[in-house]
Each structure stands twice: as structure tokens, then as C-alpha cells.
Amino acid sequence: MHLGLDAGLLGRYPSGRQLAKVLTESWIEDNLYCPNCLEPRLAREPTNTPLTDFRCMNQSCRQTFQLKAQRQRIGPEWRDSAYNPWIESFEKETTPNLALMHYNIKDLRVLNLVVIPPFFIRPSCIRKWKLSTRPNYWMCSILLHSVGPDAHIRIITDGVEEDRRQVNEKYRGFAWMRHLPPHTRGWTADVLRCIRELDKRAFTLQEVYTSYERELQRLHPENKNVQAKIRQQLQILRDKNKLRFLGKGHYEFV
């Protein structure tokens, strides 16, 4: 993977924003592979395709990707675009992978690239806000801290490409979530993020209740028995070999 942006594009575009868009999209087209199937190239989608900039060329995969690029490091929140297309993508189950790029325009180099798989992106990760110049138009931000650490599939870290086999293993390690019903998938991702935040290899069910029952009730107000739902999600994670049940309400990460 070549980490340099195409210097041959400099001087062709009067707008810095337009230049940055062309530089980063050209880099993706020439360099990024599909983390799901390791297809070496992504195809550019037609202009104005909702939420989607690229698609895996493997006909049996066809994962879609939306690119977001900036000069600053990737933080806990990414200010995105229109709110309604994201909500529609959840309803239609067409949510793309989110490719987040941090680049250095002076050195023309990609420094960090993270892919967030669509099965980790859910309504609770979207914060809408009103565009001041268009009173009836809602924008949104992606709350990256809410997707959880398992959702951050690192392709490039501090200017160094990650091993592709390990990238693929990490991505595929949770790909089973895409086959869960959307409501269940949201619960699974939220509970997984919560138990990761405990920052412990081994934990108890009571710790999860004490630390996160109220938050999970806020995220899922339609559910009237949060503790039972937490136990259900821990069982799903155990069945998928992400957790080991030790007995009497004790668990540990595999």
C-alpha cells in the first residue's frame, strides 16, 4: 500500500476543499482494499449515490464504503452530513462501512485510516444537529466513542499499514452481527461497548447492572426489562466465543 497522496493533482483545483476531496478519493480508489474479503481494489460509485462513495469489486461481497477525510487526528466524534439518509439506511439495512482518514496535506501522506463496519453503526451513535443556514435541515455527527473499540478496524496507524490478515480477522470476527435483526444488533453492540468500558478482562453481571443499566435504559427506552436484555446479549457474545461464562454471574473475555 502506497501511503502518499498524488502530488500530480496539485494546482488543478482552485478550491482547497475540492483538492482535498480529489486527493483522498483518488488515494482510496488506488490503494484501499476491502477488509471483509481482501479484494485489492474498491470501485468508485456514481456521483451523488446516497452515503456511498466506493463499493467492493468482489461480486460476492459488494461491501459499500463512505469516505470521510480530514487533516486533524480522528477524535471521539466525527461531524458528518445529512441526518435523514443515515436513518433511512438503518431502516433499509443499507448502512455503509465508514472509512475515516487522517492525512497530512503538507507531506501529502495518509497517516491514519480506520474503517467502522456497518453492523456497529446504529441510531444511538448518531447525534443530529440543526444547520444554522437552513433552519429545517438536520445534519448529524457520528459518535465514534459510542461504536466501541471493537468497531475501529485500523488499516493505517501513525503512518504504518496494519497487517492485512489481522485486519481481515478483526473485521470478520464480528461479521456475524450483520445477520442479527437490527434491534438485536443494536443491543449487542451497546452491551459490548459497555463491557469493554469496564476495562477488565473478567467482570461480573452485577458490575454491568450497576455501571450501565441506566444508560442502556436511556438508549433503549422501549425495553422494560433491561437486566434480562443484558443477560441475553452476554449469552449471544458467549455463544459467539467472545466471552467465557465462569459461573455465578462471572464472565471473562476470550
Give the arrangement of secondary structure elements:
Layout: H1 16-31, E1 42-44, E2 54-56, E3 64-70, E4 77-82, H2 83-92, E5 97-104, E6 109-116, E7 126-130, E8 138-143, H3 144-147, E9 153-157, E10 160-161, H4 164-172, H5 182-197, E11 202-204, H6 205-219, H7 226-239, E12 243-247, E13 250-253
Parallel strand pairs: 3-5
Antiparallel strand pairs: 1-2, 2-3, 4-8, 5-6, 6-9, 7-8, 9-10, 11-13, 12-13
- How would you write the strand order of the largest sheet? 1-2-3-5-6-9-10
Structural class: alpha+beta
Number of helices: 7
How many beta-strand elements? 13
Structural domains: how many? 2
Shape annotation: globular
Sketch the major β-sheet.
Answer: 7 strands, mixed
Structure notes:
With 254 residues, the chain is α+β, with helices and mostly antiparallel strands. It has 2 domains: 7-175, Dam replacing family, catalytic PD-(D/E)XK domain (PvuII Endonuclease, Chain A), CATH 3.40.210; 182-253, Winged helix-like DNA-binding domain superfamily/Winged helix DNA-binding domain (Arc Repressor Mutant, subunit A), CATH 1.10.10. It has helices at residues 16-31, 83-92, 144-147, 164-172, 182-197, 205-219, 226-239, and strands at 42-44, 54-56, 64-70, 77-82, 97-104, 109-116, 126-130, 138-143, 153-157, 160-161, 202-204, 243-247, 250-253. It has a 7-stranded mixed beta sheet with strand order 1-2-3-5-6-9-10. The protein is globular. The mean pLDDT is 94.
Keywords, separated by commas or semicolons:
7 helices, 254 residues, 3-stranded antiparallel β-sheet, single chain, 7-stranded mixed β-sheet, alpha+beta, Arc Repressor Mutant, subunit A, PvuII Endonuclease, Chain A
